[in-house]
Specification:
The complex is a heterodimer.
Chain A: H1 12-18, E1 46-49, E2 54-56, H2 57-62, E3 66-72, H3 77-93, E4 101-107, H4 115-124, E5 131-135, H5 138-148, H6 157-162, E6 168-173, E7 178-183, H7 188-197, E8 209-212
Parallel strand pairs in A: 3-4, 4-5
Antiparallel strand pairs in A: 1-2, 1-5, 3-6, 6-7
Chain B: H1 22-26, H2 29-32, H3 44-47, E1 91-102, E2 114-119, E3 128-131, E4 136-142, E5 158-159, E6 161-164, E7 180-181, E8 184-190, E9 205-210, H4 216-222, E10 225-231, E11 255-263, E12 285-288, E13 291-292, E14 295-298, E15 302-309, E16 316-320, E17 326-331, E18 334-347, E19 352-358, E20 367-374, E21 386-398, E22 427-436, E23 439-442, E24 455-458, E25 462-469, E26 476-480, E27 485-490, E28 493-494, E29 500-504, E30 508-512, E31 518-521, E32 526-527, E33 529-532, E34 537-543, E35 549-555, H5 558-562, E36 566-572, H6 589-592
Parallel strand pairs in B: 1-4, 3-10, 11-15, 14-21, 18-31, 22-25, 24-36
Antiparallel strand pairs in B: 1-2, 4-8, 5-7, 6-9, 9-10, 11-12, 12-13, 15-19, 16-18, 16-20, 17-18, 17-19, 20-21, 22-23, 25-34, 26-33, 26-35, 27-28, 27-32, 27-34, 29-30, 35-36
Classes of the chains: A alpha/beta, B mainly beta.
């Protein structure tokens, strides 16, 4: 609907009619791919993958894609559990992983987690193409972590000990600019299902369909 | 000089006030850290502030009253609702979730409209006027554009609406996983009767808002909320009511709901939302009913304002610029036993209060500003400092009286439900709120996908819950659905029906008689938000009755909620309850759906052995 709501602000409608809506994100003249809504926020820094390739984090890995991002440290017990779970998530994603869905696990321990260490870690978790383990300069990692996970001061003792955001997955469709968060230990199916929530879709189909609530009683063997 | 330079510091820990200055600050290293933005990433409102706008130039938006539909086609399914035949709807409503441009302010760039979501083309949505004894059914259509089609990009067009404070059956309560997609609708059956048919359980100011799993903050920020007001034979909504039972509170155009949101805008006037912030998001534009710093023309007479902190993460402490106190008549939708006079109102996220403001002493032309003086610099909670004079929220402009003021404020309202004398015989549970691994946790757990049952509660019973904040640096406004908190203790101090919780600064509570004007109103004994400031522990008594099924308790800093600070509790038939921590794959599966892998809104709410559910 193309309304300007609000009964008490009706006089404002006339000004709206006189002024066409500005393009909120001018595209510019060049033919480069359009940045998504969070290009200003997500660092476009150089990261190195477990297969020893460099990439620009935003341009190469995020822009226009649907992704899941989490933090790991290969010698951290919580990360082991999270990645074991992500390994099950990648099985659910099937051949869409690496095609239009991507998983990125960023180490928060870059001094230890070199590409070689990450490669072994990836193999341990049967990582398929499309699930990348990323490292980089310490400053790069800190920037990624602070922008994507933690807005708090790094010198607060509580966070220093416990907040590597190792239990959290960000999932997003940056082509749209739609991002959510889910605990890394959730059921793999429920994590994978999140990606279907944020997929771009066609126009709303009419007539509108009843979705609930479902009947309280259902005859045995009969689908509600 | 920026706002920070103009701060006046109120040091409350010692119960004294200090004017800001080096000497005062030097005395407390603890306070020094509040003077600088945190290391790391600066808040968005510092690095990318909203475009400027003139205060008090836009009129207040007053939402229209929602009107019923003659019927629903197709009709509701009686088998889909508990106790449907007992509470046959007397009115039907149809409401549509829609996308539209909303003009927050007449100045550029806001004047072109900010893409928003709302109900029936407006935000906040229309206000329901409901009555006790008059069940209604609301059919909510999700007609939002789908992902990729929507101009609002940060919110998810899958929706579930919770009637906050409502004594609502599970299937109508807006469970986070009971969501519908664009192109679908859901029927909400609101029975409008007090818990256990006890009049003392009645409520007044409720609100409805989206509760989508992972996306509550984004969807409410986009505009999906509104008011739901409940009336009865006392609170009739008619100040001229001749019934001896009628309280005759200010009514009609003198009864005005106000929902506060702080919003951040980009340079094009579009609403800006940071989904990578786990702590909570703050805006730098104060809106009332989604208008930036509006003005409202008032006559020199009494008004009833229903003030709601709509979030997502900011706390408020509200004052009037003239020093006039508020006459408080309710906290979180619970009518107080008697009115309380308070110099200021403290509202954590989702808290509400109904106040009576009498402008009769003012002359036409005079102006009164509603101010927030509680400083908050990040999403974790208030900083502990007070602002002077504070941020202007809205302005009341006095205009000539147009008629007699027949409204009244009774000396007494109604008693609260009683606290049992001996709580030891009731089941106790402890819920500890903490932070771990980048997530907000309750008893070390996150919500998961909503299939784990954290507490099974026998229908018709009461329990004692201890809500404990393990954090030293953050605050959590805790909300549990369906039934109210009856506070027993706050940090070991007894709460009585006459107690008004009051806080000055960060750590100091004081309790005073309701007869004595108080400095800060933070809520009475009965409410639906237990505000846990750092290290707080609040002991509450709760009673569950009337329905079965799954519900949630969560932090109402909705960013914390979306980072999984939420538990599921189920009401189960007597003698079938087990201890907390059970799996959804249990005998409660037959009652509340339990674990499932597909759309959980198809979960059954269920037949109940030995109890007729119609």
């Amino acid at each position: 609907m193309n309304l300007v709501g609000g009964v008490a602000i009706a006089p404002l409608r006339s000004s709206l009619l006189l002024e066409p809506m500005q393009d909120p994100k001018p595209a510019g003249d060049c033919a480069r791919p359009l940045n998504g809504p969070y290009a200003h926020h997500i660092p476009n820094v150089v990261v190195r993958s477990h297969d020893d390739r460099n990439a620009l984090f935003y341009n190469d890995l995020i822009r226009g894609k649907t992704v899941m991002i989490n933090c790991i440290a290969t010698n951290n017990e919580q990360s082991l559990r999270a990645c074991a779970n992500l390994a099950r998530v990648q099985d659910v994603l099937g051949n869409r992983l690496g095609r239009d869905l991507f998983m990125y696990s960023i180490t928060v321990d870059p001094e230890h987690d070199t590409p070689r260490v990450l490669k072994a870690f990836a193999e341990k978790h049967r990582a398929k193409p499309g699930w990348m383990f990323l490292t980089g300069e310490r400053a790069v990692i800190e920037l990624l972590r602070s922008r994507l996970f933690s807005q708090v001061e790094h010198n607060a003792s509580h966070y220093q000990i416990e907040d590597c955001s190792l239990a959290l997955i960000r999932y997003g469709n940056e082509a749209v600019g739609l991002w959510g968060s889910v605990p890394a230990k959730n059921d793999p199916m429920s994590i994978a299902k999140r990606l279907s929530w944020i997929e771009s879709a066609g126009a709303t189909v009419r007539p509108l369909r009843r979705a609930g609530p479902p009947p309280l009683f259902t005859a045995p063997g009969k689908k509600a | 000089m920026n706002r920070r330079d103009a701060l006046k510091l109120t040091l409350a820990a010692a119960g004294t006030s200090l004017i800001a200055g080096e000497s005062a600050l030097a005395q407390s290293p603890e306070l020094l850290k509040f003077l600088c933005p945190p290391d790391g990433v600066s808040p968005d409102l510092v690095t990318r502030p909203s475009p400027p706008s003139r205060p008090f130039v836009a009129p207040l938006n007053v939402m229209p009253v929602k009107q019923p539909a003659p019927n629903l086609d197709p009709p509701p399914d009686p088998k889909a609702h508990q106790r449907y035949q007992e509470f046959l709807p007397k009115k039907f409503y149809e409401i549509r979730e829609t996308e539209f441009r909303w003009v927050y302010h007449p100045d550029a760039p806001y004047n072109v409209g900010s893409w928003s979501w709302g109900f029936d083309g407006i935000t906040p949505g229309p206000t329901y006027h409901a009555r006790y004894g008059e069940p209604i059914l609301v059919r909510r259509y999700n007609t939002l554009p789908k992902v990729g089609q929507s101009k609002v990009t940060f919110a998810l067009p899958r929706t579930t609406t919770h009637l906050h404070n409502g004594h609502t059956a599970s299937e109508s309560d807006g469970y986070p996983m009971d969501f519908i997609q664009a192109g679908e609708y859901w029927d909400h059956h609101y029975c409008n009767f007090p818990s256990g048919f006890d009049d003392r359980e009645k409520l007044t100011t409720l609100w409805y808002h989206d509760h989508m799993m992972d996306f509550t903050a984004a969807n409410v920020y986009a505009g999906l909320n509104g008011f739901y007001l409940l009336f009865d034979e006392n609170d009739t909504g008619d100040e001229n009511d001749s019934s001896p039972k009628a309280w005759r509170l200010p009514s009609g155009k003198y009864d005005v709901p106000l929902i506060l949101h702080d919003v951040l805008f980009d340079s094009y006037g579009q609403v800006s939302f940071n989904p990578f912030n786990t702590d909570g998001i703050l805006g730098d534009k104060f809106t009332v009913n989604r208008i930036i710093q509006p003005f409202f023309q008032v006559e020199p007479r009494k008004y009833r304002f229903r003030i709601l902190n709509g979030g997502p993460s900011r706390f408020y402490q509200l004052y009037l610029s003239t020093g006039q106190p508020f006459v408080v008549i309710s906290g979180d939708g619970n009518i107080l036993p008697k009115p309380v006079v308070a110099e200021s109102i403290y509202l954590s996220v989702a808290q509400r209060t109904d106040v009576i403001l009498d402008f009769s002493k003012y002359q036409p032309g005079e102006q009164i500003i509603l101010q927030n003086r509680l400083e908050q610099t990040n999403g974790r909670g208030p900083s502990g400092r007070m602002l002077d004079p504070g941020d202007g929220i809205m302005r009341f402009d006095v205009v000539p009286l147009t008629g007699p003021d027949n409204s009244q404020v009774p000396d007494h309202f109604r008693a609260l439900p009683p606290m049992p004398e001996d709580l030891s015989k009731f089941k106790h549970r402890v819920w500890t709120f903490d932070y771990l691994g980048g997530l907000w946790t309750i008893n070390g757990q996150t919500f998961g996908d909503g299939t784990r049952v954290d507490a099974e509660i026998e229908q018709g019973t009461g329990e004692v819950w201890i809500l404990r904040n393990n954090g030293k640096n953050w605050s959590h406004p805790i909300h549990s659905h369906f039934t109210e908190f009856l506070l027993h203790e706050v940090n070991g101090r007894l709460v009585t029906p006459e107690t008004i919780q009051s806080t000055e600064g960060r750590r100091h509570y004081e309790y005073e008689s309701a007869d004595v004007p108080i400095k800060v109103f933070m809520g009475g004994q009965r409410r639906d938000i237990a505000t846990l400031l750092p290290n707080d522990e609040i002991k509450v008594f709760m009673r569950w009755d009337d329905f079965l099924g799954k519900y949630v308790m969560h932090c109402h800093n909705v960013v914390h909620e979306d980072h999984a600070m939420m538990i599921r509790w189920d009401i189960v038939p007597k003698k079938q309850a087990r201890n907390s921590g059970s799996s959804g794959q249990s005998r409660t599966r037959a009652l509340v759906g339990g674990k499932r892998s597909n759309h959980s809104h198809r979960e059954r709410t269920a037949s109940v052995k030995g109890k007729k559910v119609t």
